[in-house]
Amino acid sequence: MSAVAALVLQVVWALLLTPLLIGVLRTVRARLEGRVGGGFLQPYRDLRKLLGKESLRAPGASWVLAAAPLALMASSLVLIALVPLTTTTSLSVVPDDLFVVVSVLLLGTVALALLGLESGTAFGGMGSSRHMMISALVEPTVLLSVYALSVPAGTSVLSGIVAARRSDPAATVTPVSLLAIAALVVVVIAENGRIPVDNPATHLELTMVHEAMILESGGRDLGWLELGSWLRLTALLGLVVNLAVPWGLADSPTPGALGLGLASFALKLLVAGALLSVAEVFMAKLRLFRVPELLAGSFVLAFLSVSASYLVV
Amino acid sequence: MIGADLVGTLLVAGLTLAVLALGASVLVPARHRNAAAGALIALLGLDGVAVGVAAQARTGQALAWPIALPTLPPLEAPILLVTPLGGVFCALAGGVIAVAALFGIGYASGPAASRTGWASFTVFALGLLGVPGAGDVVTFLLAWELMALGSTVLLLADHAARASVRTAAAWYAVMTHLSFLSILAGFGVLAAAAGGTTWATIAGAHIEGPTATLAFALLIAGFGTKAGLVPVHVWLPRAHPEAPSHASAVMSAAMVKMGVYGILLVVADLLPVRSTVWGIALVAVGAVSAVYGILQASVQTDLKRVLAYSTTENVGLIVTAIGAGVLLRAVGQDSVSSVAWVAALLLAGSHAAFKTVLFLGAGSVLHATGQRDLDALGGLARRMPWTSTTFAIGALGAAGLPVTAGFVAEWTLLQALVHAEAASDRLVGIAIPVTMGVVALTIGLGLLTFTKAYGIAFLARPRTAAAADAHEGTATMRAALVVGAVGVVALGLIPGPVGAAFARSLGDGSVAAGEGAAWSSLVLPRIGQVLDPAALTILAVALSVPLALAHWWLARRAPRRDVALTWGCGGDASSPRMEYNAISYSEPLVRVFRGSLAAERRVDVQAAPGSSVLASDMVVVHETHDVIEDRLYLPGVRLATRLADAARRVQNGSIRRYLTFSFVALLAVLVVISL
To answer: Å from A59 to nearest chain B CA?
Structure first.
């Protein structure tokens, strides 16, 4: 099979797994809190319901209202196609370069922020403003932590970094690697609005960020927004897991290797999701203005990791 | 192929066009003045582009021009000689001038459309094209002063209507003169040391040691002032908003680039000294400018002030890239250093493209609503589709997102930083990661700034009647906006040929275009990286087709429905006053960076008449300040005012006192002579 088929397979697989990941996150959390929860498959049912429903339009709404959910979805689809989730055989014409991946992620961020402003309500603007502030402050950590991991690999292409780490198992437990992964976990939490940065289970609270932006959307629009945001979690969490545990990814587009890649990715992603959920149960949401301190902390980790990478070389 | 004669012919054609444009500005009656002068200036700009492109062939011969000055040594005969590097800036300035002049045809009104307005625009354009076309110090300085003169007069266009214009012009004139003095002194040092004034003579003298350091410091200070670097950026947020919009576009997109050209001319051609200290100094100044500029931009509420501060940010990034190149060259990493310099040129090119669109877009908004204040706008996307779409593309470019010119430039800069062998040298090892962090923070804050600028001005509902009644601009205004936006996307979609040309202009092949089918892609052969935005776009389209089909199928079964309030929360009406505005949007950021922004929040309470407890009016004021201006400049301005007040005491208007002064002066002269 060619690299294109591997890519299509990865996108479809990530699309199929994503609602399950959300189901696992929610159910694990519910069980630990002593609730029953909606079950692993509830997000699939939610999506079917939302996508089948009509969307609403307030008078005077502009093209952004209809375009933003689709733009977010498109950016998320490109993201799950680029990031090495199940295979390290990236397309040679579109390498999964770190900076390209980050910029595609940011396109989705901007689509969400503009949608929040378009709604013309206080909640929308509030969420949008907070969301952009957090994204701006996360940016240095993203670039520096992946830079630290790229120094030993000598490339900023993500699949190259994953492949280099797989071939040198000792490198996955060095201080450089551990510090950078810790910083990246904070990035995943902040970019996807998980506790302690934002509470994904909240509606109509003055502290919300993500939910405030999509508050005015309903029906099909909301369905795309939910799926698009979930895919971002899959992509980022999958990337961090693959950087931390770089085994199982297909290194050649043969059916056997690809099958192993798909299976190992599902396992790693769901286990990481469950762990994330367990960690969230023991934490409370931070005050918004304490979040920059958390992000500054993660930046320090990333910077230490870069410094440590010079010592090793 | 392109020969020396072509460059010469084009230069002469340019001078002729400038004279014609001057004539048209003065002689053509008011009814046709905009069209005649604007068209001729646009042609002059296009001629600049042609000169720049032709100069890349490197066969250019110097065009000596007669001047009625004695050429005493070390003055050599003044020449026009477009080097390949100068050609890049010539083309860049020419493109900006052409688009801005086209916009001006439909936009200029009142004083900006007067004889003086168009004549000063012509002088400004001529100066801008002359600076990169100069082959020696004298020509350079003459063109530099033409540029300053033209822009100052143009800036003063609306002085009768707004007092703020006069303040802005005073700041601009003072800073421009300081910049000129510093550059004059710097070139003086170089000319004295080299014994000549042409670039070739100075570069051939290989000046080193304290002389080189002195000249470097003076020249960087002078060019940095023109480029709007911190801490000499103060004229920029005043002058850009107050100038007519087509003039602000040229000032921001082309004129500050002449400062960048000057810096590149110094470090790449005139003084190619390998010094880590110079590199670190440039990186530090650039990095501080980038972060400070974008931080200030993100909290402004005046649309054109946002753009002005963002100019400081972009120039900061360019100088950071130049500095990184100098630093890496000093530690012997020449191939990565060249990538950093090409990144600087790409940043300059992309900034020229998107800032032209953004300033012209702001001009179109001003034309339609009479408002520059973001908090008085809103909902323009529906009323002004052309302006809204082109502004959105410009904002994407400014935020550095694909597939625009800004993304390509920032990608190249980050690649240069990532591939520096930082472990080899301790200084580099600290400087490179810090620079990366700074660039990343700048990109992040830039994203916030331009999401805010576009979202608050063009989305949601109109906040004032002026915004609700906005209308689209004239045909030439729309055409100029579209041309600019196409430039932003074209540079972002097919960066390869442009990047390769920029690398060649620096005399080096560190950046190349892809081969065969991937001709549009940008290749960095020495560090093995490829960027193919066209392929990325194809991937995105391929993935979006199934999405669009699914959406279409779902939408057919349950079409969108119009409602009065999508989510009323129990309410049944909402007013535009409830919307988030520009101040509230940046409030979280202001809290985080309280110290650097000198943020202040107070409640002004006006007591009701006859009561000490009842309030008749309450206003919440959120203010941020330019800390550098407050702490560095205002004490100086206050001192100057005090001295001027003291001097007034000497000059009290009494004839008797003046006669006494004359008498004392005469006595002093006699005493001096008799000694």
So the answer is: 6
